[in-house]
Amino acid sequence: MVRSGSTSTSSRFVIESSEVDESREPRVPWPWPVVVVVAAAVAILVQWLAFAGIIVPEWLASDGRSFPNILATASSLWLSGHGVPIDIIGVHIGLIPLGLTCVSVLLGEEACRYGARVLWHRHHKKPSGRRVGEVVALHTTVEVVAAIIMAAGAATSHWVIAVVGALLIGLGSGFVGACRGAHISPFSRLPRWARGLPSAVGSTVAVCVAGGSAALAVALLIHGDRVIQLHHQMGATGWGGFCLILVQLAWLPTMALWGTAWMMGPGFAFGTGTFVSPLGTHLGIVPALPVLGALPSNGPLNPAACAWFAVPVIAAIIGGVLIMKSLPEAGFEIGAGLGALSGLISGVVVGVLGLLSRGSLGDGRLSEVGTIMPATAGCAVGILTLVTMLCGFAIGLTRRLRSEESRQVRAERRQERQKKRAIKAEEKARNRAAKKQQDKRQQSVEKKPDAGQESEPIQDEASSDTANSTDDEALGHDIYDSIQSAQDAPDDEDTIRRP
User: Fold this and answer.
1) At 252, phi and psi to the nearest 5?
2) Which of 140, 161, 176, 10 is nearest to 84 (CA)?
3) Over the stretch 306-332, which tens digit does the pLDDT of each residue have?
4) Which of 112, 117, 257, 396 is in Cβ range 3.0-4.6 Å of 139 for a Cys bridge?
5) What is the DSSP letter of 452?
6) What transmembrane ranges does the database entry give (predicted)?
7) Alpha-carbon distance 125 to 182, whole Å?
8) What does pTM read for this prediction?
9) What is the dihedral of CA 34, 37, 43, 47, to 10 degrees?
10) Are 354 and 373 in contact (CB under 8 A)?
11) pLDDT digits (tens, 9 = 90+) for 447-469
């Protein structure tokens, strides 16, 4: 009990302290545009210095290489994360190291968030949309200028790719960071029916990518001995071995996307005329990179590997559940339409990620490496759209059936209540009529004169019979009126409006 209390207290303290830090204005005397520019430049400089620091020990151990060449290599590594091909040891590599791209996006997002946070405080926590757009524009401009400078330093001819890559990364990281720093929800102005699409699409894509990462991890565990053996055979020890591990980590997200394409069915290629898929594997000569030891051996269909086909289906079901959860009143028509739209967008996103993981590892046979397009995009769109649409249709139809069943149950309950009310009303009317009849008889007996009771017995009997028939008729009218009033009484459940 003491431990749980202390844990909850410490967690509450961490949350409260983080809220205090978030509400506290950064102690920066500069204007917010200067803060945005400097933060973006510092984030880029940190990446470049990290690349240069990795290369410098190799430069110290080698002869015949000038220091400017080392700096140009650091610039080339930074540009490779933006999609620019790079030449390493005479090999032209066009496969994007998405690990470096993720680092650029995360650092840029954090830098832009800091600048937008300063803007948020300077405008009394109510910045306009125009100011937030200016933060994104400044951050993107710094990213593009840095790409141009590094492209000039690396003497690369791929200027267009460098600018386009920097523009996309700057806009993406800047938009997310500015929204977080200015406490603005980018989806708040969406129509009500579309507010569940971002979470549904994001969850579907995240589950697909997580499944591909899990498939890669399982492959590394199964073929771990082969991976370690290849690492020892390369003879990379010390700093060289550490750099080799970093190079493989840089392409690890790319291979995770290969795992996602592998789960979709078409798989990926590692060379011209090759394919790796649960339906079969056909590979040629593979470079002796240790992480490539996780590739499966050549062979036909693997029944056990086909179980991974369930991951995209589960991802689509999760997306369908989330999109229907955002609209509790949606029926099967709207559910099927929104489910199809969510699956379509998710499939397009998975296809774009697969396109980013496609490239080359040299000329000739290894000029085609990565996901097999457009088969991967087509399978992603088809599977996710179909399953999400069926999921939305099923949830909407279940809601409709439940509403009809509940309506029938309410009608039966209403009829039972009306019968009970009619029975109670009939009993009350009979009791009331009997009481009235008894009172009338008692009053007639008291009013009769004692002298005329013996002389007119026949007349009294006739009058009593007439009174009895009149009372019975009145009793029947009272019972009929009570039953009609009970049936005409409004039911409480009918006044409740139900969806």
Assistant:
1) -65, -45
2) 161
3) 889 999 999 999 999 999 888 888 788
4) 112
5) T
6) 30-56, 132-153, 159-179, 200-224, 236-256, 268-289, 301-324, 336-355, 375-397
7) 8
8) 0.76
9) -130
10) yes
11) 665 544 444 444 444 444 444 55
